[in-house]
Amino acid sequence: MATIKQVADHAKVSVATVSRVVNNTGYVSADLRERVEKAMNALNYKPSALARSLRRQETLTIGVMLPQLNQPFFSTLAFAIEKTLFANDYKTLICSSEEESDKEAAYVDMLLRQRVDGVIIVPIGSSTDNMNRLINGLVPAVLVDRDIPGVPVNRVLCDNVDGGRQAIRHLLELGHRRIAIIGGPGHSKAIDERIRGIQLGYQEFGLPYSDANFIMSEFKEFDNGYQVGKQLLSAPDRPTAIFALTDVTAVGVLHAAAECKLALPGDLSVVGFDDIPLAAHSIPGLTTVAQPIYEMGATAAQLLLAHLHSDEPVEQTVTLPTQLIVRNSTARAR
Hints:
By secondary structure, the protein is α/β, with parallel strands linked by helices. The chain has 13 helices and twelve strands. It has helices spanning 4-11, 15-23, 30-42, 49-56, 72-86, 101-113, 129-136, 160-173, 189-204, 221-233, 247-259, 277-281, 293-308, and strands at residues 61-66, 91-96, 118-121, 141-144, 154-158, 179-182, 214-215, 241-244, 269-274, 287-290, 317-320, 323-325. Helix 11 links the parallel strand 8 and strand 9 (269-274).
């Protein structure tokens, strides 16, 4: 394996210049940097990640805090984050807060004690307390999927407003007017934005939106769609369409419809949100609003890495688009 001195000799520069290039410290002209990088490639020189971390007082670990690891959306997000960080010599400590603020606070304490170099977090609720503890501890952080306004950190979000708008317009264009919307307990800002998009969609059609169409329950995800779906579909004035604000909830609705012996999409149209892998393989295939889940995770990791390796990091918000994916769970209203 090549040494740093061999790289310096090959590039005809000092060892100190190679060190500055490797560690991205101090000034190096563009010409010298190019010579050093070419020499490193020619000699297949791999800087020691451990040595770099000791010089910079880094731990080369990143905390990743998610609300529910057992949900497909968040597990895919975690996969993208971990893969991107690992490719850049960082290891991950993955934590599941289970949508509990006390558990989130306990994990923040643990990550601070572990002296992680940064944290990527899908936060719970709108409280700034835990985020401020990270900021006060000088730990760079990236919010992903859910926002907490006013916190000075990087963000990776999706256009949930336009996603909600696309979904409801699709159902309205199919002639549906009795549309139920199923949310969940203590819904997040992302869900609030989807509801705002629904309201915009109704306005664009010149139709009134009623909060009576929106149903919340104390059930979570699949059980939410299944239990609420059975109640709605057993009623004499049952809806002709249901927009579930997550895909897992929508799959619960599909199961409820099957138990109620309804044909989909003939008797009922169903739309979800997220486009988890299961959505394309449900029966029927689920019409849904796709979030670029993998891209969200990879982008969050890249923003954090850029922050860690910059002398003057800039706060950024990246908002990724959503896209309606039409499959076989929606059709024209009878």
